[in-house]
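Input record, target 12 of the design panel.
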């Protein structure tokens, strides 16, 4: 049996912060906090709910996600999250972030071009193209690291603080993709 942390008695958990209602928690994160449970991954053996089974870990991820987004254009954040979700084959996150992007005013044309952004570069700004290239390199880091030219391209269009936040968004979406995939979240079941 996996031990769980009791937020009521754990001094490291802020009992006044409810990830389900905290305005600092993004809608995308909130849907992972309050997911609709899908079918069991293995007959008779449903997958765990990370938020309930490891609340301190989950709250740390929420805080990291919120801090990563600070100061970045929300459209850029969604493009990063969409591209990483494509590469990680995370249908749950891809569905969520394309819907979030639409709600934020993103055009269908641009959403359709994200997977082929190099061939349709005119749909994206230089900063967006640099962020998409960096997203691919970091997401697929095991395939050859982050090439110097990809990093230099991003460093040329983002100042150090922006670049740190872009990297942090890439890291957080890769983490959320892995949470959704490991716990068998089903696309279209977020309850926002």
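The sequence produced for target 12 reads:
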């Amino acid at each position: 049996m996996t031990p769980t942390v009791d937020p009521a008695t754990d001094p490291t958990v802020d009992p006044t912060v409810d990830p389900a209602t905290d305005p600092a928690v993004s809608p995308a994160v909130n849907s992972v906090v309050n997911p609709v449970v899908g079918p069991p991954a293995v007959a008779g053996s449903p997958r765990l709910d990370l938020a309930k089974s490891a609340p301190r870990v989950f709250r740390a991820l929420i805080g990291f996600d919120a801090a990563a987004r600070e100061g970045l254009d929300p459209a850029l954040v969604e493009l990063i999250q969409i591209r990483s979700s494509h590469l990680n084959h995370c249908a749950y996150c891809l569905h969520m972030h394309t819907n979030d992007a639409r709600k934020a005013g993103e055009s269908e044309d641009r959403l359709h071009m994200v997977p082929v952004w190099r061939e349709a570069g005119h749909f994206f700004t230089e900063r967006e193209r640099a962020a998409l290239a960096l997203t691919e390199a970091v997401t697929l880091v095991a395939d050859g690291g982050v090439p110097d030219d990809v990093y230099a391209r991003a460093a040329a269009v983002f100042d150090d603080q922006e670049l740190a936040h872009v990297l942090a968004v890439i890291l957080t979406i890769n983490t959320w993709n892995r949470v959704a995939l490991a716990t068998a979240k089903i696309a279209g079941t977020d309850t926002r």
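Confidence is low (pLDDT under 50) at residues 1-16, 18-44.
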